[in-house]
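Quiz preparation item.
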């Protein structure tokens, strides 16, 4: 770059710094910043479920427990079949026997999965009823039962997945 162009560019850049002084806003505290802070009210105490809702929740919890018991009973047989087929070829008798045992195991947990789905539906229905003012409380009770059923189903899924991973895949 030639010195003449350099001086012209420098003059142009420096002219931007030599403008008229502007008035900037003050950095002092504004009245809104020193206003008192509103106190947030603590959330209302949870309302327990009524007798009908508690009975319905208990029915679904019992159904989930029944599914867990059926799953645990079928698990030993399926695990034994999967262990026997772990080194077997795909479509061999041992592999097919293990696949049938796993299918039986998945069927045995239907009560747990169905109870979880019913609790999910009940939670949504109750949430809508509470929001519409047609019902009060019970959401915490349903949510606790949902969490327990979800834990059962997740454990069952993990056990089935571990069993399937031991078998050769087609």
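Solution:
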């Amino acid at each position: 770059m030639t010195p003449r162009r350099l001086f012209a560019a420098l003059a142009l850049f420096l002219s931007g710094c030599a403008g008229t002084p502007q008035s900037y806003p003050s950095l002092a505290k504004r009245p809104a910043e020193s206003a008192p802070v509103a106190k947030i009210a603590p959330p209302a105490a949870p309302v327990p479920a009524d007798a009908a809702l508690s009975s319905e929740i208990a029915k679904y919890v019992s159904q989930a427990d029944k599914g867990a018991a059926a799953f645990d009973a079928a698990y030993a047989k399926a695990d034994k079949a999967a262990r026997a087929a772990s080194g077997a070829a795909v479509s061999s008798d041992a592999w097919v026997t293990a696949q049938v045992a796993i299918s039986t195991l998945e069927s045995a947990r239907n009560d747990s999965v169905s109870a979880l789905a019913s609790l999910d539906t009940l939670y949504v229905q109750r949430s809508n009823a509470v929001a519409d003012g047609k019902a009060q409380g019970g959401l915490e009770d349903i949510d606790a039962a949902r969490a327990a059923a979800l834990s059962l189903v997740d454990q069952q899924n993990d056990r089935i997945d571990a069993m399937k991973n031991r078998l050769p895949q087609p």
